[in-house]
């Protein structure tokens, strides 16, 4: 029932023919970069310009001096989406004070969100909780955004006392959810077992209720989100040690990071006769696991992109081979595209997010170009990327206005075709 409801609302959005225009932000370096972008492929040129400017149409400064980034055609800010939507602007932050001001304001708002409710995944402009779906990645994203901003600009002014309180809330929540059955009071009506989720064994990993797709987990150790937590906890350790000079908190973050990583290695991998040892998608610590993937990021496909491992790691390569094959139940193909979809949207529909991620994590320029061609083919006529689309008819899609894939597309073009160096989210832990 949950999936049918999600699909219904996704398809309903297709029927919207008019969306109220946002006033948008005028950031000269971003506008100039879009206007000056030239490419022999006129279609790519048009799509890149539209994608790069998309976040300026969805972001606004709030009366309290923070900045709010709505996800698109839903009037709320997702911690995950907003963090990803502004990532391309990190490339301009070093040289443009107005971009730095915007990013500092976004990071400051996210710190307030996490203090209000660390179990919520989305909030409104006036700081009300839009959804309280506890998603582990929603705690990790603000940490990695702050870390990436700091490393790209050298500006530590974002690390205010308020930001440290948000880090405290993040760490405390992650520690509590290591033993969900014993320590947590969190429940949600969409989870089985009276909102508590299925039974789970203690693994050192962090329990999570929902996937980045906002769908309920089947087993509550979601391995892609565990990977992202490892990265965020490594970032947190560095921030606490080097900026706040708080050795006890740095040690606590490092300890949890190492426990989660060991949990992934012990409980989050399975042996496959065809592909060898691969990462599971979800596990319960009791011997059960699911092998698939979801287009939303963090995904298993995104493990090198988020900084958990390298693109050449053998277990990642084994997993990638499985994920991009017909053996993966979430991998679909059609006349215009082939790639990973999501159980959140119609069967056999592909997500541009997954296509972009395939390209970003590929070591083959031929594969990168093939992915780009599929993304261009997915354009339904508005020159934007959407949530999902029918690979046999790209004019059928969900989400009229969805900022995240457009931001990721901007990043993809810059780093894969224009020679721009990727900005890491963290440093792979050893």
Question: What keyword list fits this structure?
Answer:
430 residues; mainly alpha; three-stranded antiparallel sheet; globular; Glycosyltransferase; disordered N terminus; 17 helices
Number of helices: 17
- N-to-C CA distance: 42 Å
Strand content: 5-15%
Based on secondary structure, the structural category is mainly alpha
| The CATH architecture | Alpha/alpha barrel
CATH fold annotation:
Glycosyltransferase
Task: State the strand order across the main sheet.
Answer: 3-4-5
Give the total of beta strands: 14
CATH class category name: Mainly Alpha
Structural domains: how many: 1
The low-pLDDT segments are 1-22
Structural Rg: 20 Å
Overall shape: globular
The main β sheet shows up as: 3 strands, antiparallel
What can you tell me about this protein's structure?
It is a single chain. The chain is mainly alpha-helical and 430 residues long. The protein has one domain (2-417): Alpha/alpha barrel (Glycosyltransferase), CATH 1.50.10. The protein is 47% helix and 10% strand. The strands form 6 sheets. The chain has a 3-stranded antiparallel sheet. Helix 4 packs parallel to helix 7 (136-153) and helix 4 (79-85) runs parallel beside helix 17 (403-417). The longest helix has 21 residues, at 247-267. The N and C termini lie far apart (42 Å).
């Amino acid at each position: 029932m949950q999936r049918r409801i999600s699909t219904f609302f996704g398809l309903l959005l297709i029927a919207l023919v008019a969306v109220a225009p946002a006033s948008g932000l005028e950031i000269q370096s971003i506008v100039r970069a879009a206007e000056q972008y030239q490419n022999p492929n006129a279609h790519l040129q048009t799509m890149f310009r539209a994608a790069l400017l998309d976040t300026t149409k969805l972001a606004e400064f709030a009366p309290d001096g923070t900045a709010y980034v709505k996800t698109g055609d839903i009037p709320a800010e997702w911690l995950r989406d907003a963090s990803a939507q502004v990532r391309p602007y990190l490339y301009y932050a070093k040289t443009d004070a107005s971009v730095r001001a915007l990013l500092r304001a976004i990071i400051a708002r996210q710190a307030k969100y996490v203090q209000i409710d660390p179990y919520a995944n989305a909030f409104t402009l006036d700081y009300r909780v839009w959804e309280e779906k506890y998603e582990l990645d929603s705690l990790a994203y603000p940490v990695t955004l702050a870390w990436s901003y700091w490393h790209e600009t050298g500006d530590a002014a974002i690390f205010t006392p308020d930001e440290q309180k948000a880090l405290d809330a993040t760490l405390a929540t992650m520690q509590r959810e290591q033993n969900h059955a014993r320590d947590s009071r969190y429940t949600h009506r969409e989870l089985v077992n009276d909102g508590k989720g299925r039974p789970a064994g203690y693994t050192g990993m962090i329990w999570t209720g929902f996937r980045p797709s906002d769908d309920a987990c089947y087993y509550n150790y979601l391995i892609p989100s565990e990977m992202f937590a490892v990265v965020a906890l490594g970032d947190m350790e560095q921030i606490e040690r080097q900026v706040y000079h708080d050795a006890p908190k740095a040690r606590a973050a490092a300890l949890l990071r190492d426990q989660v990583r060991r949990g992934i290695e012990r409980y989050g991998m399975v042996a496959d006769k065809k592909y060898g040892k691969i990462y599971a998608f979800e596990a319960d610590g009791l011997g059960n696991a699911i092998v698939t993937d979801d287009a939303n990021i963090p995904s298993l496909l995104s493990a090198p992109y988020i900084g958990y491992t390298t693109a050449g790691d053998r277990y990642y390569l084994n997993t990638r081979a499985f994920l991009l094959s017909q053996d993966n139940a979430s991998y679909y193909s059609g006349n215009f595209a082939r790639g990973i979809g999501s159980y959140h949207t119609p069967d056999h529909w592909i997500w541009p997010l997954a296509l972009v991620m395939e390209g970003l994590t590929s070591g083959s320029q031929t594969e990168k170009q093939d992915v780009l061609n599929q993304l261009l083919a997915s354009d339904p006529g508005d020159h934007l990327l959407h949530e999902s689309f029918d690979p046999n008819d790209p004019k059928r899609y969900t989400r009229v206005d969805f900022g995240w894939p457009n931001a990721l597309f901007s990043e993809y073009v810059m780093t894969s075709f224009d020679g721009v160096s990727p900005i890491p989210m963290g440093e792979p832990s050893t």
